[in-house]
Every structure is written in structure tokens, then in C-alpha cells.
Amino acid sequence: RHKGQRREDSMLVHCIVGTRPNFVKIAPIMKALGRCQRIRAHLIHTGQHYDTVMSRSFFEDLTIPEPDRYLNVGSGTHAVQTARIMESYEQVLNEEKPGLVLVVGDVNSTLACSLTAAKAVTPIAHIEAGLRSFDRTMPEEINRLVTDTLADHLFTTCTDADENLRREGVSPERIHFVGNVMIDALLTSLPLAARKKTIKRLQLEAEHYALVTIHRPSNVDEPESFFRVLMILEAIGRMLPVVFPIHPRTEKQAEALGLADRLHACPGLQLVAPLRYLEFINLLSSARLVLTDSGGIQEETTILRIPCLTLRPNTERPITIREGTNRLVGTDPDVVIDAARKALGSSDKPKCSPPPLWDGKAAERIAAIVEQIATAPA
Ligand code: UD1
CB of 297 closer than 6 A to ligand 1? Predict the structure, then answer.
């Protein structure tokens, strides 16, 4: 039997993606599963993110295979989006009867496909299990809690997550500490990203700009919170050039709240369309400072040793504070601006070593365990 040939008794695994961060996480997993003889992986794209820049370009930059099924659900309220995904995915699940449904992260697609699989009594593997912000006003926290309750195999990025799961009563043999697939993708992509000319194209100078990403409902959905973000951007833009690849949700909210003109007029701020993965990593790896409310970027800046200010009251990724470059600063403009000034005041790169198992091999460890699951007697 030569490499790549599947055994007749191979197990079908559905790998579920829907949003931008899912695409990054699934890329190394699809590659690693592709090398397993006992596994046939089908990629199911829910269509939660559908724009070329939010979806297609990630498939290209991360060489993710074409989805086997595209559910085309699009945007909607949480209930509508979740229900639509469940309805479409149930059909695919019934037709293909996978032996395992593998979900990543904490988005609505993760939740909806887990619920569908659980009702069809199909085993679920959750990648990035056990993260907790302990803040149930975040839609992602609800998605994490429900997905982990339903999952049979829980793959974690850090031992904090293992502890959270054990505290919730998950039996230890179902928890697998494997490391961080988002960092697998980052480490593989750094040399390719270094060849991009994004910094130059945006007329920035390496190490002399701040990179901003803000899209959480808690920061952009209410006028007061969006206004605080604006005040922060205005102040940071006076300290150094700022580049802000704006998420469609943020852009829409700026319009809806009547703040778009003021946002566009911020001194020192370049608003750009969402960036492809490699272009974003190109910008991220030479930034002087990062301000964000994203989860993944807290992890990426930790590995790249770039100071990161997280504009949230909490994080489900405390390891990035303890062992990384992240600081939780909330959204009080005075506090954030003061933290930015301090970060810019020190010229040394933060000293820290990568968290355990954030070494580029998480997907390989996951694939090895999934292959064991495939061969274990039912
Ligand atoms: C989703 C995830 C969030 C993740 C983020 C990454 C949930 C609950 N949230 O948030 O955890 O951090 O993705 O980006 O699953 N839109 C477009 N084009 C697209 C997709 C969305 O224009 O391709 C616009 C739509 O107007 C939509 C809005 O963005 O209403 C929000 O999209 P949605 O998928 O509901 O959530 P995100 O804010 O992207």
C-alpha cells in the first residue's frame, strides 16, 4: 500500500468550518489527517463567512482543500444562523454518516454542528476545548460551554483548559492536551508571510506602527462602546501610525451608529479592508503594538513576542497574559492609552518563551489520536 491510499475500513471524519478563525485552525488539521490511512476527512463549510476576503482568500493562503460540502447559510441573528446550519448540516450528516464530527473553536458553526451531531448520536471531537472567559454575555462562551458538554473527545491548547474541563466533571481520559493548531498555522506561514509586501504597500515602516482589530459585539454594537473605541483610536493615532483592517461587522456598525465619518477622519489611522491571512501575518509580525479584542491574535502575539493590549474585561486565554505578551486593559480610554504609552516606552521585545506544546505539531498529535479513535473497537 503506498502513502495516501485509504484502507477500505477507513473512518469518515467531518471537519466543520464556518468562520475566518476556523479556516486557520483547520488548515494544519486537514494536512495531518490527510496523512492518516485510516481516515477520510471531508471538509464541511457552513458558509457563516462567505466573502472572498473572509473565506476564499484563507483557503488560498493556507492551501486548504476545496470544501466537500458548502452549506451556504450566510449571516443572520444567532438563532437564525444556528438553526439554518443545523437544518442543512443534518441532511449532510444523514447522507454521509461520518464516524466522527470534528469541530474547532467557539463560533456558531461549532455549536450548531455539535448539536446536530449529538442528536444523531455521532461522536464529536472538539479542538480548542475547555477555554472559559466565565462571561456568559459573550456568545462564544455559550458556544464553548455547550460544545464541550456534548463533545466526546476534548482537545486542549493549555493545561488551564484541562483544569476547567475536569472541574466541570469531564473525565480525564476524554481530555487530550495537544497544543495549539493556530500556532501550527502561524509557524508554517511565517516564511511565506515574510515575502508579502503589505507593510510597504500600506506605506508603513516595520516596528513603527500599531495594528488594530476590533469586532466583538461588546465593543461595536452599542454607541457608548464604539465611541470609547473611537477615543482610543484617536489617541493612539497621535502616538504612531495605526492600521486597522476593519471587520465587516465593525464597518456595518460604524455606519449604523453614525460614527463612520469620525472613524475615517481619525488622525494617523489607516482603515483597510479585511486582509488575507498571509498579508495579516506580514503586518502582525512587524507591528510595534497590537490592540485587539480577538482571541487568536492574543495567542499569535504571544508567539511573535509583540506587546498586545486586549480591549476586553476578561479573556478565555489567560496563558497569554501569564506566559505571553498580552495585557487585559478593558475599554476605559484612559487606561488603554496609558497602557499603550507604557508599552511604547520600552524598546525591548518582551521576554517570554512559547507556552508548552505551542510548537507547530499540535495537528500531528490530534491526527494520531483521531486515528486511534478510528481503530478502537466501537
Ligand atoms: C464570528 C464569530 C466570532 C469570531 C468572528 C471572526 C460567532 C458567534 N461569532 O463573528 O466568534 O471571532 O466570527 O471573524 O460565531 N459579514 C460579512 N461577510 C462575511 C461574514 C460576515 O459581511 O463573510 C458581516 C455580516 O454583516 C454579518 C456580520 O458580518 O451580519 C457578522 O457576521 P457573523 O458571522 O454573524 O459574526 P462575526 O461577527 O463575524
Answer: no
Closest CA to 370 of 7, 82, 14: 14
Q: What is the mean pLDDT of the chain?
A: 96
pTM given for the model: 0.97
Distance CA 83, CA 28 (A): 29
Contact (Cβ atoms closer than 8 angstroms) between residue 254 and residue 271: no
Q: How does pLDDT run across 149-185, given as a tens digit for each residue?
A: 999 999 999 999 999 999 999 999 999 999 999 999 9
Whether residue 373 has its Cβ less than 6 Å from ligand 1 = no
**Cα of 108 to ligand 1 centre, how many Å?**
9
| C-beta 54 within 6 A of ligand 1 | yes
| Residue 143 cell numbers, joined | 458556544
Please tell me the distance from the alpha carbon of residue 305 to that of residue 7, in angstroms, as a whole number: 43
Please identify every stretch of the chain with a pLDDT value under 70, giving residue numbers as ranges: 1-5, 7, 378
**How many angstroms separate the alpha carbon of residue 249 from the centre of ligand 1?**
6
Cα–Cα distance for residue pair 131/321, rounded to 1 Å: 14
For residue 78, indicate whether it is catalytic: no
